[in-house]
Amino acid sequence: MHLSSxxxxxxxxxxxxxxxxxxxxxxxxxxxxxxGRIEAYQSTQSKNCFDNCKYIAAFMGTNKTEALFIxxxxxxxxxxxxxxxxxxxxxxxxxxHFADDHIYYKMQKLDVMSDMDKKLVIDxxxxxxxWFQWANNDKEVLSISNRNEIEFPxxxxxxxxxxxxxxxxxxxxxxxxxxxxLKNVNGIxxxxxxxxxxxxxxxxxxxxxxxxxxTEYYKTHHGGDVDIKEHLRKYPDAYYDFQFTILRxxxxxxxxxxxxxxxxxxxxxLCTRNPEYGLNRN
Length: 282
Known about the structure:
GIY-YIG endonuclease; 2 domains; alpha+beta; 4-stranded antiparallel sheet; globular; 8-stranded mixed sheet
């Protein structure tokens, strides 16, 4: 199957559409994607690459050759000059992307092919490797939907970034097995700030399992933990660098006193009450 056949099915006009691929191996691209700001990133360009098209089909480059579809967008208008800087979102981390010599393209995400978001994977290497190109440069479809499901590696081998946790919390179909696994157990977990060498040990003892507790971290960033709150006051964006792992599985019906007792053992083992590298206050 080729991308052209999917475009035809959905009525996409390939003569007015460009394909765009944002490579996740670039640090700034990966950062804005994890922050949920990829649309702001693609809206500002250093050259007039979208002046002659009406639509773009946006993809994320997941490795050297593959690209994951993230949406169809319509170009509404373009802005150039000093006004570009005023269009940068407040929490956007790279002001240079909104410099005066850039062009800002106001875009609107369309419902067209929305059922393919984060499900359609194509081979980008065919015809040309340019990061933006006309849609008539046809691409091979590598996978769609459930064929892209990610296998759960087991509790002991599981390592999650904050961005990955977001996909799980949002019910991303690729993580179906992860969602079930994390809902069905309680446990002792470890949160690491991978850039600032800080660690936090916690425990869960609720009906929603580990997933229920980790959902709180994703939504609030701190989960109500005092020292993590303090850490985020000092480093407001540190939660983007949080890594979640499981140290020990506990039964779903574990008593709170037992979970807290075992939690204390791991705090002692990992010395996370030491303020030099730990984020546990008690």
